[in-house]
Amino acid sequence: DVPADQIAVGNGSAELLQASALVLLAGGGELVMPWPSYPLYPLMASRAGGRPVAVELDAGRVDTDAVLAAVGERTRAVVVCDPNDPTGTHLGADGVRALAQRLPEHVHLLVDEALVQFVDGDDEDATLRLVRELPRLLVFRTFSKIYGLSGLRTGYAVASEGSGELLDAISPALGVNAPSQAAALHALRTGDPEIDRRRATVIHERRRILAALPSLPLDAPESQANFLWLRAPGLSGAELGARLEHERILVAPGGPLGEEDHVRLTVQGGGATDRLLEILGRAFGGPARPGGSEPPSV
Predict the structure, then answer these.
(1) In terms of pTM, does the model score above 0.85?
(2) Which of 2, 120, 192, 202 is deepest in the core (most CB within 10 A)?
(3) What is the pLDDT of residues 122-145, one digit of tens each?
(4) E-only strand ranges, 119-277
(5) Burial class (CB in 10 A: 0-12, 13-18, 19+), 221
(6) How far apart are CA 97 and CA 82, in angstroms?
């Protein structure tokens, strides 16, 4: 359990992240971020009057040493999306702890866990519990992803026992509207069976797609999100996207997300995976439909 005075509730986690940047980067501080990552991060630094500092990922993963090397006297915060959007890679609680422990005292670590419910195998709340030992850690969650409540804009931030002043500063002055509060409370009270079903479906279908990639001229980092960061060596992301669109499969182009040679492919249900694997096999050569299409029961 987390005491109420260690939680800030806002109109989506994006609002709370932006508010954190406004507070922490006041006076022109720097925000260090692994990149590519969630497009909000450089925008929120600029809007706060600060400077975004991008650190290249290593094979789609956070390079902790490179992040630390980018931290300087003007750095006020590091933001990490975990799992990362758009690559889907997962740093995990051990990685977060290792990074936070090596940051200087003038730097906060902001961990955006919008996609954490899609992680397979790890304790969902392991990073959240780190606020007990790491005084400059803030963890952000949202109801917009696996809960499907994006239109109602509800999220929250959790911080350490001594962070009340910062949490007060980032909380919206007028709070969160009553319908959003009611929906979030209802989701928390009654939504576990549906959340378990959605999570199991994504994990199962993600495994099927990843298992098929080694037999195709395609690759993607080991994702722990509800999408894959797909690349076809020799093709630009635009070319790959156009080839898939010709088969009526829509993907997000990688250029606006940080890498021109990638696309982001959403993981959906079993029928969509069947069709995807059949088309990939036909378009790129390789077996179709590896594994079963039925997710495990929950």
Answers:
(1) yes
(2) 202
(3) 899 999 999 999 999 999 999 999
(4) 137-142, 155-159, 227-231, 252-253, 262-266
(5) buried
(6) 13
